[in-house]
Amino acid sequence: MSEPHSAQPLLEISGLKTGFDTYDGKVPAVDGVDLTVHAGKTLCVVGESGCGKSVTARSILRLVDAPGRIEGGTITWHGDDEPFDVLSLNHDDKRLQRLRGGDIGMIFQEPVASLLPLRTVGAQLVEVIRIHTGMDKQAARKRAIELLDEVGIPKPEERVDAYPFQLSGGMCQRVMIAIALCANPSLLIADEPTTALDVTTQARILDLIRRLQAEHHMAVMFITHDLGVVAELADEVAVMYLGKVVERAGVEEIFADPKHPYTRQLLESVPVLGRDRGRDLPTIPGTVPNPLHRPKGCSFHPRCSEAIAGRCDIDEPPEVVFDGGRTAQCVLYDDQTEGDRA
Length: 342
Ligand SMILES: Nc1ncnc2c1ncn2[C@@H]1O[C@H](COP(=O)(O)OP(=O)(O)OP(=O)(O)O)[C@@H](O)[C@H]1O
Ligand SMILES: [Mg+2]
Prior knowledge:
- The protein contains 13 helices and twelve strands.
- With 342 residues, it is an alpha/beta fold.
- Helix 5 crosses helix 6 and helix 6 crosses helix 8 (169-181).
- Among the domains are: 114-182, no CATH class; 270-341, no CATH class.
């Protein structure tokens, strides 16, 4: 775990709040998130559906559409000589445009919806390559074909002229990955990039990401439900629940010694080869509450097997910082609980 912390921070999110104004009230989708991605390292963000992973990712590039609004926090980019707060930039600031698709490549969760339907994939790739590298049209087209080949698209010299509707969802996903990688970004944000793909292609894409990371010292923020992928890819892990990061730690620490009861329950619901044959896996009881009706106190307490009545249902949990810097938002480790145990 010491290694990830010794790397320089590249992106530091602090106190991020993003909400959606709806007829029923404000949905606090991201509710005070703190995260750090270190240069050249992989941060995996995990958590059940609806906990705010995608909204966090979109907030980084200021791509939250109305009725969504970033309401607070800072997002510091350390990739330039002078660090700056992405949230303080005007919408037309050149640095924001350079971040989007240049310094930061993003693979969105909905690949087909992210591609323009009436332009060939080649034209879309060529445009992004030219914006960020200044290549001429011919060189950019050559690079586009190379990239399509790299992400595993067969016959790239033909597919470059295809429209998105002529390609399968998996192919569109790979085109999106090619677009995200075309400017050799310092940070790749990948939001469930392989869920729509078959296992072989998934393995190929993960290999590609790892290779690029090694070659270009690229950092990765990888959003996934798949704890197998986390084990394979992550240096650090952030576990999200209902708009908050409830635990942050190095990958080995998360698997060997999960601190937050939610992390423990997530890990217990994953099958282990050899151990779980024929056994019913435990699931986390209940469902993620509607963020409009967030439970008082710790928002996980109604589903938590270790909740302490009179505390977890009343107070927001403290953020406990452990040796080595890992954190958990849980009363189980604060002084009062430790005192009660003694
Ligand atoms: N346009 C919107 N209007 C209202 N609420 C929204 C909107 N977009 C997202 N939300 C809410 O924000 C919360 C976080 O959504 P988000 O898409 O970030 O979840 P997620 O963790 O990425 O889930 P998944 O794993 O399913 O992709 C959810 O409760 C969702 O309902
Ligand atoms: Mg999502």
